[in-house]
Design brief:
Blueprint lengths: L4 E4 L16 E6 L7 E6 L8 E6 L13 E3 L15 E5 L3 E6 L8 E4 L3 E8 L2 E5 L2 E5 L3 E5 L5 E5 L4 E7 L44 E4 L3 E6 L7 E6 L4 E4 L18 E5 L2 E6 L2 E2 L19 E8 L13 E4 L11 H5 L4 E2 L2 E7 L4 E2 L1 H5 L12
Parallel strand pairs: 8-15
Antiparallel strand pairs: 1-17, 2-3, 3-17, 4-16, 5-23, 6-7, 6-26, 7-14, 9-12, 9-14, 10-11, 10-13, 12-18, 15-16, 19-20, 20-25, 21-24, 22-23, 22-25
Length: 380
């Protein structure tokens, strides 16, 4: 839920009609049954008009239990493959979330809808547009792109685009503590309502030749065959829709002493929090140690995606690396990093952190790109 948006044409009152001879078909698009955030969408055709359904198996989704220890996955070694859907390589997961990398090498051949998970994409490289029933949402490098579960969409993207993706069974939200009692982003929060970009609904703009929808049910797809264009929406209003936020519009919070990761929180869910580490001035106490201290995250697993810049507290990490620091084991700066950091005034790092509240496991694909010596990076 973000803020109220109204686009296109619709009756003056909900659940009424404009012209009896040209009825619009109203769809309530909402979470938590009829109690959560929702939008009202006005189709020119009946959205239930599906010709037939067929099941489509996903490729290897076999997943193994996690192994012990902190891990480093060299995700930058993954080669482009597939389209926006088949390019998804899940690396880290639990029952509530899936985290992975996408490097699509060809255009998508169907429309898409996720039946069970909210989706958040971090655009590591590239540009493009999410065309959905809500309209067109352009994205660029450094964007977070949020797509509510249930949204029918078609992704367009430049060759060479790369994404970190997060799929969440629970709603992906703006952290509640960033909102005042009226639902507005508070003064002092790292971004503002104006920074959130919403889709633009053109008068008529479909994806010619594309009407089938691949619906993702987590462990398999169902292909929805349609003979009419699902992009027939003439208007919508409400609070639930895709949106984008660029990291350049996020103002990192800094302090006299080292700030803990929650001050860099960007989005939250029941089973995770997501933060963004951004270029920023370091702490201004004359004797400040400007990087992380050793820490025991005793009830979370920490996943970090390193997007760009130099990463002050980590050795052996490159752009496109993903680390998993597990609960139960202490972690922190590698030997020599504290000494190197003292006196540094700023960082140019860009990294995405996801703290998973339930223990995570890794996939066979992740172990193919695992740096098996990562635990040794703390050896002196
Ligand atoms: Fe950490």
């Amino acid at each position: 839920m973000v803020y109220y948006v109204k686009q296109g044409i619709m009756p003056d009152s909900r659940h009424t009609y404009m012209e009896k001879d040209h009825l619009l078909r109203e769809e309530l698009f909402g979470e938590e049954s009829f109690e959560g955030p929702y939008s009202l969408i006005y189709h020119s055709e009946e959205p239930t008009d599906v010709v037939s359904l067929s099941r489509v198996e996903k490729k290897n989704v076999a997943r193994d239990a996690s192994e012990d220890g902190h891990r480093h996955f060299k995700a930058f070694e993954l080669k482009p493959s597939g389209d926006f859907y088949s390019a998804r390589i899940p690396l880290i997961f639990n029952d509530r979330i899936v985290i992975g990398i996408m490097k699509p090498e060809k255009d998508a051949s169907t429309l898409f809808r996720h039946a069970v998970s909210e989706q958040l994409f971090y655009v590591h490289k590239g540009t493009g547009s999410i065309k959905s029933i809500f309209g067109n949402l352009h994205f660029r490098k450094g964007d977070y792109v949020y797509i509510p579960k249930g949204t029918t969409y078609y992704p367009e993207y430049a060759r060479g685009s790369e994404f970190l993706f997060l799929e969440s069974r629970d709603r992906i939200s703006i952290p509640q503590r960033y909102l005042n009692a009226y639902g507005q982003l508070r003064e002092g929060s790292p971004y503002y309502t104006r920074d959130i970009r919403v889709p633009y609904l053109p008068y008529f703009d479909s994806v010619p030749g594309y009407s089938d929808v691949m619906v993702d049910f987590g462990d398999h797809y169902v292909l929805e065959h349609r003979d009419k264009d699902p992009f027939d929406v003439v208007g919508w209003d409400g609070y639930l829709y895709p949106f984008a936020l660029n990291i350049e519009n996020i103002a990192p919070i800094v302090g006299k002493l080292h700030m803990p990761p929650p001050v860099h929180e960007t989005f939250s869910g029941k089973s995770f929090m997501l933060g963004t580490f951004l270029p920023r001035k370091f702490d201004f106490h004359p004797k400040a140690i400007p990087i992380s201290y050793y820490h025991s995250n005793i009830d979370t697993d920490e996943i970090l995606f390193y997007s760009s810049g130099s990463f002050m507290s980590r050795k052996g990490i490159s752009e496109g690396s993903i680390t998993v620091h597990v609960r139960g084991l202490i972690h922190g700066p590698q030997p020599g990093m504290v000494e190197n950091a003292i006196g540094k005034e700023e960082t140019d790092e860009v990294a995405v952190m996801i703290e998973a509240y339930d223990p995570v496991k890794t996939t066979p694909e992740a172990r193919l790109i695992q740096d098996t010596h990562y635990m040794e990076s703390w050896h002196r």
